[in-house]
Amino acid sequence: MMYQPGAVITGDAKFYTFLEGRIAAAASAKTDNPLEIRSRQLVKSTYEMEQIFHSACPTGRISRKTARFACSSLEDCLVYACEQYKGPFYIYEVEMPDAVAAPMALTGYARKVAKNEWLLAKAIAAEYWDPKRSWHYWEYLDSAMTILKSGTRFIPPLALHQAVQDRKDLYDEDATNAGKIDWLSGQPRIRTRHKYLQHFALPAARGRYVLGILWLWEASLSAAIRSSRHLLASSVGMSNRSCR
Fold first, then answer.
1. CB distance 48 to 23 below 8 Å
2. Among candidates 105, 71, 17, 45, which has minimal Cα distance to 228?
3. CA spacing 20 to 30 A to 228: which of 15, 25, 69, 148?
4. What's the pLDDT band for 46 if we cut at 50, 70, 90?
5. 172 is a domain residue
6. Domain count of the fold of the chain
């Protein structure tokens, strides 16, 4: 689906409904297929993670349950999109005036532990909504986004330019560091708010996010799960929205 300049894309809970439908269907249909089993585990762990993050969402904030997501640069968009899309995709310039920044890598790590370590996932969610550590790769959440320019089409596989590879390396560093933190130690957390503000700041010249990929749950994550045979075989999926 193509979007035209001026279109307003609002959030909804379709992805949650999709996950709930998959979980309900799996409960009434047993399988011995290892790929299907892993696909179901992926769906369930994603749902559990999203539930924890939704419950931890501060009052007055847009929840991940109904948010739209964007990046602040083309490089960050491509880091995400190149992992998620096997066919052509579009990146749009969008406006998200009330967006909130959050470290994306935390969702992927929380998804891994949500099933067996609820308190750990809850601690990770608290950091997601109120970052006090230094993170490099941010996603931006808002209840809606306005399309500013026609989308630019990209056709995988893409050769990652050094700038994109550098951002991917920083995302991977965030993911690695998330696994090294003793989230339940109760030790004071080092505040690095200056870095958070640096990444959160809107471009002063135009007052809007420079570039944003439409992270349409139903278009990307749902498709990724539906094609889980290919997804799991190729080990695709980064985080968040996170069958990612």
1. no
2. 45
3. 69
4. very high
5. yes
6. 1
Q: How far apart are CA 80 and CA 113, in angstroms?
A: 22
How many Å separate Cα 202 from the centre of its chain? 20
CA-wise closest residue to 241 among 212, 220, 213, 226: 220
- Asked whether 105 and 83 are in contact (CB, 8 A), the reply is no
What's the CA gap between 73 and 93, in Å, rounded?
10
Residue 126 has pLDDT above 60, yes or no: yes
What confidence tier does 186 reach under pLDDT thresholds 50, 70, 90?
low
Residue 205: which domain range?
8-233
Beta strands in 53-211 (DSSP E): 68-70, 89-91, 94-95, 100-103, 138-142, 144-147, 152-154
List the one residue out of 85, 114, 93 whose CA is nearest residue 219: 85
